[in-house]
Amino acid sequence: MKENRSRGSAPTVLRMVLGKRLRHLRERAGVSFEDAARAIEVTPLTVRRIEKAEVGLRIPYVRELLRAYGVPAAEVDDFVTLAREANQPGWWYKYRDVLPEWFRAYVSLESEASVIRLYEPHYVPGLLQTHDYATALMRVGFPNESEEEIARRVALRLRRQELLAKPDAPAVWAILDETVLRRPVGGAEVMRAQLDRLAEALETPKVRIQIMRFSVGVHPGAYGPFHHFRFGFSELPDIVYTENLADSVYYDRPEDVVAYLEVLDRMSVQAEPVARTRDILGELRKEL
Q1: pTM (whole model) above 0.90
Q2: Do 79 and 144 sit in the same domain of this protein?
Q3: Secondary structure (DSSP) of the chain
Q4: Same domain, residue pair 98 and 146
Q5: Each residue of 9-63: pLDDT tens digit?
Q6: Are residues 34 and 161 in the same domain?
Q7: Of 32, 48, 57, 177, which has the fewest beta carbons less than 10 angstroms from its beta carbon?
């Protein structure tokens, strides 16, 4: 499924998981959308939207659906407990004033992923940016905002980076175009500090960084950035995220995800080995 999430409520990962569990329980019980809808006195479309995590999990609806699917009472209580948790706003809720609706799903996916693979042709990934580098980018991206609003956006980005310090931090494998490291953002001093930050990230066991040199020429990912997420939930498939200036698209159909994974695998062979990254960063730093 190709899904544009620029409108509507951005789901948490847990809500997505529970929606898929509800679909599995309904199908296992042989209950149609129409029968499920009658059980909670809504339209079949509402049931579909619940299963696709496009709406919140209303607890009375969840209870009635589970009963209609023949789920034992004890399991109903456990599911409802998870549903209440899924309905709680994520940590990023307090940044909602500077967090676009279409990007909230991304932050949720990032927070719960076990593996994040990505290709970036323009800028250092948000998880690895320094404060000054992020600030310089925000000032260009939001030229009409106040310094206070810019500071809020930077604070959100730095808050996301706390993910990498957690015991269950995801494995992050980033392929960066050489352009990322040569494009001056914020001046030489800011860029030197940013290159140092990337070198420090290499000390983290779960972070791998490869650089796609100019000399490679045209490569499979040259058309734009994309991020691939893998999760520790059997109900949740791999998801690929892409974006443009004002919108985002999430792919979870196996054939779409496989196409992106194949591109990442081919690019990882073409890019410089991880063992060379530190030396390249040092070389580029000396040029500043």
Answers
A1: no
A2: no
A3: -EEE-SSSPPPPHHHHHHHHHHHHHHHHHT--HHHHHHHHTS-HHHHHHHHTTSS---HHHHHHHHHHTT--HHHHHHHHHHHHHHTSPPGGGGGTTTS-HHHHHHHHHHHHEEEEEEEESSS--GGG--HHHHHHHHHHH-TTS-HHHHHHHHHHHHHHHGGGGSTTPPEEEEEEEHHHHHS-SS-HHHHHHHHHHHHHHTTSTTEEEEEE-GGG-S-TTTT--EEEEEES-TTS--EEEEE-SS-EEEE-SHHHHHHHHHHHHHHHHHSPPHHHHHHHHHHHHHT-
A4: yes
A5: 445 788 888 999 999 999 999 999 999 999 999 999 999 999 998 888 999 999 9
A6: no
A7: 32
